[in-house]
């Protein structure tokens, strides 16, 4: 859920999330996931709040956020298109599809189209290996995709 809030509200909301989840074993990933679910990305303003709440350095939190590909540092487009990059999908032509999609959208990985409609992200397995290549848009998975399928998915997202 990508919501727009004032910057002061970000710290308050992040503090509430941290306070609620910090007692979990290994709380940083659940905290980061919840923050991204709320804001659509992990705002830079959240890092010191997380660090303080978990008694960590800001560098430690930054390291986790930048290590995992799934966390965004800026708001995504209205739709997020993820293309599988795992070996099974690669063996079934995902690399060619990815290049075609990047050309169609005019963006690279983690980019958002100028109209703000679509953010393109790699994902390293959707669990659809028997239906390779696969893609996901806004949480809906598609197996055995080809160029025509992706053109249709992109056209629908732009409507």
UniProtKB/TrEMBL annotation:
<dbReference type="GO" id="GO:0051537">
    <property type="term" value="F:2 iron, 2 sulfur cluster binding"/>
</dbReference>
<keyword id="KW-0408">Iron</keyword>
<feature type="binding site">
    <location>
        <position position="84"/>
    </location>
    <ligand>
        <name>[2Fe-2S] cluster</name>
    </ligand>
</feature>
<dbReference type="Pfam" id="PF01257">
    <property type="entry name" value="2Fe-2S_thioredx"/>
</dbReference>
<feature type="binding site">
    <location>
        <position position="125"/>
    </location>
    <ligand>
        <name>[2Fe-2S] cluster</name>
    </ligand>
</feature>
<protein>
    <submittedName>
        <fullName>Formate dehydrogenase subunit gamma</fullName>
    </submittedName>
</protein>
<dbReference type="InterPro" id="IPR041921">
    <property type="entry name" value="NuoE_N"/>
</dbReference>
<dbReference type="GO" id="GO:0046872">
    <property type="term" value="F:metal ion binding"/>
</dbReference>
<keyword id="KW-0411">Iron-sulfur</keyword>
<keyword id="KW-0479">Metal-binding</keyword>
<feature type="binding site">
    <location>
        <position position="129"/>
    </location>
    <ligand>
        <name>[2Fe-2S] cluster</name>
    </ligand>
</feature>
<feature type="binding site">
    <location>
        <position position="89"/>
    </location>
    <ligand>
        <name>[2Fe-2S] cluster</name>
    </ligand>
</feature>
<dbReference type="GO" id="GO:0016491">
    <property type="term" value="F:oxidoreductase activity"/>
</dbReference>
<dbReference type="InterPro" id="IPR002023">
    <property type="entry name" value="NuoE-like"/>
</dbReference>
<dbReference type="InterPro" id="IPR028431">
    <property type="entry name" value="NADP_DH_HndA-like"/>
</dbReference>
<keyword id="KW-0001">2Fe-2S</keyword>
<dbReference type="InterPro" id="IPR036249">
    <property type="entry name" value="Thioredoxin-like_sf"/>
</dbReference>
<comment type="similarity">
    <text>Belongs to the complex I 24 kDa subunit family.</text>
</comment>
């Amino acid at each position: 859920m990508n919501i727009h809030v004032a910057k002061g509200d970000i710290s308050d909301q992040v503090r509430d999330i941290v306070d609620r989840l910090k007692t979990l074993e290994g709380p940083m990933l659940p905290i980061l996931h919840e923050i991204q679910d709320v804001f659509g990305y992990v705002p830079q303003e959240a890092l010191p709040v997380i660090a303080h709440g978990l008694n960590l350095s800001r560098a430690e939190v930054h390291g986790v956020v930048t290590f995992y590909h799934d966390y965004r540092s800026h708001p995504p487009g209205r739709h997020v298109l993820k293309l599988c990059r795992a070996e099974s999908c690669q063996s079934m032509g995902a690399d060619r599809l990815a290049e075609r999609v990047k050309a169609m959208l005019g963006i690279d990985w983690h980019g958002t189209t100028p109209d703000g409609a679509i953010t393109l992200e790699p994902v390293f397995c959707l669990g659809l290996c028997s239906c390779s290549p696969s893609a996901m848009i806004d949480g809906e998975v598609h197996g055995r995709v080809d160029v025509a399928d992706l053109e249709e998915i992109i056209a629908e997202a732009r409507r």
